[in-house]
């Protein structure tokens, strides 16, 4: 473990609503309402937060039905802390939990923005096209 590893701690759990909303806003993931955040966060199947000097600077979550389908969401690290392998540490923690607890045959998906697809590919995620295409609708 090097000094960089010592400076950052990945913990199981989800951030508080205000922290969650701040991280999403600061990293360009887009705003979520306080009401929606308060409902959604407790329904996380598994989540992690990244801490540095007492501040939550990153996060990632797995949501889903707990048996057949899972989705990885909210992977982010504040810009001042990017480029240090923290996204990789978040993904490693999330995929390790899926490998440990998800039932055989479970399907895990995610939406890869931009170059993030290269990180996710390192953890076995692949573009399902042309057999499948991702679709979304925002309310």
What report would you give on this structure?
It is built from five helices and five strands; from the N terminus they run αβααβββαβα. By secondary structure, it is an alpha+beta fold. The protein has one domain: Gcn5-related N-acetyltransferase (GNAT) (Aminopeptidase). A five-stranded mixed sheet has the order 1-2-3-4-5, sandwiched between helices. The chain starts with a helix and ends in an 18-residue tail after the last helix. The model has no long low-confidence stretch (mean pLDDT 94).
What is the structural class? alpha+beta
CATH domain fold name: Aminopeptidase
Largest sheet data? 5 strands, mixed
Radius of gyration from CA coordinates: 15 Å
Name the overall outline. Answer: globular
Task: Please sum up the structure shown.
The protein is of the alpha+beta class and 139 residues long.
What structural keywords apply?
5 helices; globular; 139 residues; alpha+beta; Aminopeptidase
Write the layout of secondary structure elements.
Elements: H1 3-7, E1 9-12, H2 17-26, H3 34-40, E2 46-52, E3 55-64, E4 69-77, H4 86-101, E5 107-110, H5 116-121
Parallel strand pairs: 4-5
Antiparallel strand pairs: 1-2, 2-3, 3-4
